[in-house]
Amino acid sequence: MNKSNLLKAVSILQGGDVVAYPTEAVYGLGCDPFNQQAVEKLFHVKQRPVEKGVILVAASVEQILPYVQLMQMPWEQEVLASWPGPVTWVLPLKQSMPEWVTGGRDTVAIRVSDHPIVQQLCQAFGQPIVSTSANLTNQPPAKSCDEVVEIFGEELFCLQGALGGLEKPTQIRDAQSGQVLR
What we know:
alpha/beta; about 30% helix; about 20% strand
């Protein structure tokens, strides 16, 4: 990925808009999780109900520590052993997070990705971003920028890149119960 495209994507995120980018299995849509208008725009684009909440993706554990209960918790080692990697964990919040991120829950689904483009994007943006599959609700997710354009049109900026090689979206696990949710 060239630096000018990365900087353009970061500028779009900072401006409160939505970008598409490759993840471990499919293309994702992302935005600034703390910008309500950006998240509402993402929900509108996907035709997704806000009560569902969203997954956040980060470049490092350090990026998520302000938000979640992880260190000195019974699940700390298991979670850290899976990151960076393709496992999304539902973790209890350390501080409140906007309802549009959590769907009104006291937990958040979060992943520290090992995908190089996700890593670069979150590092350059300086915080986690929303990560939801690039599709209309209940439709198959995009697996290329061409498919993103087919679904959402030309106005949505798409970072070109290879998928991470997973066949299905990342596993989601509840840290407190150990239960596999997806």
